[in-house]
């Protein structure tokens, strides 16, 4: 199947609707019935505005997070439309790819 990989980059402490933004994105994937979504955390990152984001033993609110979606073009349209409606400004990358499922046989 031909589709897209959308990777959104943020940090754990960023919130939307009183929820961690990365967790909100995963919930949105479920709500929109997207083909797949994964949240991955990093030890350190630099944002486009310059600050370094890092996780510490005491506080993980500044922990860098990447949320990756595997979607069809129609799902991409629905996802980006919803993010626009929510007035969210999140940096992301978009890669065209082929994906599918392995067979048990």
TrEMBL record:
Protein name, entry field: DUF190 domain-containing protein
Organism listed in the record: Marinomonas ostreistagni
InterPro entries with a match to the protein in the record: N-reg_PII-like_a/b, N-reg_PII/ATP_PRibTrfase_C, UPF0166
Family, per entry: Belongs to the UPF0166 family.
Organism classification: Bacteria, Pseudomonadati, Pseudomonadota, Gammaproteobacteria, Oceanospirillales
């Amino acid at each position: 199947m031909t589709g897209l990989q959308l990777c959104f980059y943020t940090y754990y402490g960023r919130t939307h609707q009183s929820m961690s933004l990365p967790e909100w994105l995963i919930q949105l994937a479920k709500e929109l019935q997207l083909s797949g979504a994964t949240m991955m955390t990093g030890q350190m990152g630099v944002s486009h505005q310059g600050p370094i984001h890092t996780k510490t033993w005491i506080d993980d609110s500044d922990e860098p997070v990447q949320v990756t979606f595997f979607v069809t073009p129609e799902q991409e349209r629905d996802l980006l439309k919803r993010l626009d409606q929510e007035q969210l400004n999140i940096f992301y990358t978009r890669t065209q790819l082929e994906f599918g499922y392995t067979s048990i046989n």
